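Dear Dr. H.,

I hope your travels went smoothly. While you were away I took the liberty of generating a structure for the chain from your last submission, since the lab meeting agenda had it listed for discussion. I wanted you to have the full record in hand beforehand rather than looking at slides cold. The sequence, exactly as received, is reproduced here:
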Amino acid sequence: MARRSEYRRARDVTVEAPASRAELEIDALTTGYGKTEILRSVSLSVDRGQCVGLIGPNGHGKTTLLRTAGGLHRPWSGTVRLRGENISGWSARRLVQRGLVHVPQGDLLFGDLTVEEHLIIPLRRQRRRARMARIEGLYEIFPRLEERRSQYARSLSGGEKRMLAIARSLLLGAHTLLIDEPSLGLSPLMVDNVYRQIKELSASGITILIVEENPARLRGLASDVYLLDRGAIAAHLPTEALLEDSSLLATYLGATFETAELA
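The corresponding predicted structure, in token form, is as follows:
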């Protein structure tokens, strides 16, 4: 009888599941434009403080996935969660207030505003001393922007515009960034500069989901990679395992991605 009582007590004890480390969770997400389906039951997860890459052929849904997760496009079905909260269908503005910011292809900057004026806008309600302290702190992360602080956005290089767009997102209070092809259209030197800054942000604890056309650029930045093909997840594996799989890269991204190129 005693054993039976002990068993009942043990059975009645509620064991709490460990808290999820996921910052961003996308589950069975389906969406499209008009009657055309672009994403089909896509699921992925990014842990808090993790950087995850998203690669795949052009036109297969990578940008649509980031736009949907970032509040710029509505899902047809499935869920998007931020720190466990269902944010499916929320507006981009509401998501920014929650700390999730989408940095799109292109940079959506105002050509007639200077670098510093772009950085002041998100902080316009703060007192000047507090505002400038935050901007000066940001210049330590992006020293190139400090050099260009009085320069109009229209005269910046592509890489400098990309840095400014990312810097502005941090002043919005972002703890999670959705970055869409930051290397697009940049010179090799500027790509290196932009990625150096992104690596610093990742090392500081910012959670990042990043779309990149060249998987080699994810080495040393993203811990793992999702491969999106025809609107569905075709593979999910550690970045180094992906870069060593020349057959997989050739199948989905073309013969230009040979192992020698990725070394």
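Two observations you may find useful: The chain is about 40% helix and 25% strand. The first helix runs from residue 2 to 12.

With kind regards,
E. W.
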